[in-house]
Each structure stands twice: as structure tokens, then as C-alpha cells.
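Sorry to interrupt, but I need a hand with the structure work. Go ahead and set the record down below:
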Amino acid sequence: MTTHVLLVEDHAFTRDGLRAAINLELDLHVTAEARSGEEALDVLARTQASPQPVQVAVLDIGLPGMDGIQTAAEIGRRYPQVRMVMLTAHDLRDEVLAALASGAHAYCLKSADPDLLLLGIRAAASGSAYLDPQIAHHVLGSIRTPHATSPLTPRETEVLRLIADGQGNRDIAANLGISVSTVKLHVQEILVKLHAADRTQAAVQALRQGLL
């Protein structure tokens, strides 16, 4: 059985190399490509009703415009059946934790052996999780150490978590048993405390900072 892969990478040379490595495998095939997060969402909108829907999306974390973390969160919200592999050139703790919080199922380094990326894709496709051995220590460290102190109240954190899930003010109000006006007040406080311009930016910043 072939796993159909969406490759999301803005650098043509890197994308060509990744495509070649993946397509050499009998059980994997790149059936769609995108150069940005926005384009990836357009591609998924077209392909998911086709006879060969994308099963795994391989995302560069440093995409232009909508970055890989935000793209993963949006794919997870719109296409929960699509598994995600995050690919990065950096071994940075905040990026690792933010990527996992955004819904990525595997995290691989571009500098690693290509076989590890293939392992990550197969693990994600099978419903498992995978972390490159070089970055697993970040996750273990986050378990041993407490999260950063949040500027948000517990109720504001609840509201922000529902925002990150893609819910509007009315849905949030119904879920929490509060008025829409109260939700709007909480949202305004969240934006101020996180220095965010809008709801999406607030959710992304919270994911990056490990507040959700």
C-alpha cells in the first residue's frame, strides 16, 4: 500500500532532493507539492476528495508567510486525517515544542540521514509519533522542567485553547457557559497580554511559548 505525501518546501533545490528520496521508496510517493502554507491548504482542498488523497504532509518549519507551525495547526483543524511531519534545519527547543503543540506527529532534521525522514513519514502514516534522536532531549527536558509562567488567567487560557481549535466567540461562549460579551473581553485581554495583533497570532505565540 502506497502512502501519498504532500511536500511543502519553499526552496526548489531542497524540494527536489526530498522528492527524489521519498519517491525511491516503493511504499511512499509524493503526489502533491506546495511552496507555502497557504498553497498547501489550497492543494489539500483540491486533493482530499480525489481517489488518492494526501495521507502525510511533510512541512518545512520555516515557510514564508504562514510558517510551518501555523500551517500544521490549520491542517490539523481542517484535515484531521492528514498526519504531519515537521522538517527543520534547526535544533531549537522552542521550535520543537511549538511544532508538537501545533499537531505535528513527527519532527525531523534536514541535516540528518534521509533514512530518518523516511522513518518519520512511515511512523506518522501508521499513527505513531517520531522524534529525531538529536532533538528528543528537548521533549524530555520539557517534561522534567516546569512550563514558563503564563501571563494568562486559567479562564483566558481556556478561551485561547478553544481559539486555537478554530472556534468562534459563540461556540466558545457555549462551551464555557459564559456570554459572548465575556468571551470578547477575554479575547481583548489575551491580545494585550500576548502583544498579539489578532486571534491567530495569539494562538501561534501561545503555542511557541508552550502556554497551551
Q: What stands out?
A: Residues 3-144 form a domain with the Rossmann fold fold (CATH 3.40.50.2300). The two ends are 36 Å apart (CA to CA). The CA atoms of residues 74 and 167 lie 12 Å apart.
